[in-house]
Amino acid sequence: MSSSSTTEPRLAFTSLCIWPAYGALPSFDPECLGVLAHFAFSRLNVPIKTNLGRLKFYKERLPLLLSDNDNIHLAAGYEAIVDHCKRSHIDIDEKFQANIADLLALNALVKSTFVPAVLDTFWLDDTYRSSIINIYARSLGGFPLAFFYGKQKTESIKNQFNIIYGDKNFDQTRKSIFEKGKKVLDHLTDVLGTKPFLFGASPTSIDAFVFGYLAPLIHGPASNSALARYASSRKNLCDFVNRILTVYLGDLAKDNDTTDSVSTTIPTTSNEDRLRDKVAVIAVGILTMCAYAYLSGLIRIEINQVE
């Protein structure tokens, strides 16, 4: 993400930590993709780091913006990083103030209806959840961190959905989330039309946000899901994603393809992943029961020394 221009804006002494690439994507994570697109639209020249340690991948929220030799956390997550850019007087929406109400309304619609549909596909659908976890597992170093990360992520999204939609009929809730996600895709198709971006010839923050969730849906391991097939059937949305990948993030994707941290294949099949999960749960259960039995005195271990 570099340029020969001497007038490009900068965030002083910073680096951006992201989840690594997947295939043609410079990162497989939606928020990381959104930040990368936002930085590219802003012509920000920020060093990108994907060679993090396993525990840092597990503990930190990525994308993560760092300062002062990577010792100070400036912002974590898409929204916080975009807000940090605006506070630093780097705002790609500044010239769209006349349409700011429409921009904010579209952003709220995508966030409240399309994002949950993507998260449901990635983390609550058993068919694709294993593949998603396997991608994250590359950076986490595999079992056991990937196992715990996947469980935590799934439970977090379930709890979030229960709070928002209620938990009386969770299957029906998921169907409703999917249908609303399709309607947003229809709306995005109409809004985009034949324009390069949602609000005309120049990109905005909502373009970066939408791209972040559309790109891994269309080009990720869940590309055969019902939601991904529906998105791929909208030619202008596919062209929108591919245009950003090629024009704005093409060099970054190529650079990432040469690093050791990049994963372009799924390490294990979904059946293998489910079997590993079952073995891990059984092993933890057996160890827990043995520890309880020993501590409660149900079993004792005696060592007799034979002379």
From TrEMBL:
GO biological process: mitochondrion organization; protein transport
Subcellular location: Mitochondrion outer membrane
Domain Metaxin glutathione S-transferase: 181-244
Entry-linked Gene3D superfamilies: 1.20.1050.10
Keywords from the UniProt entry: Membrane, Mitochondrion, Mitochondrion outer membrane, Protein transport, Transmembrane, Transmembrane helix, Transport
GO cellular component: SAM complex
Pfam families: GST_C_6 (PF17171), Tom37 (PF10568)
Chief location category: mitochondrion
Transmembrane segments: 279-299
Family: Belongs to the metaxin family.
Descriptive protein name: Metaxin
Species of provenance: Rotaria sordida
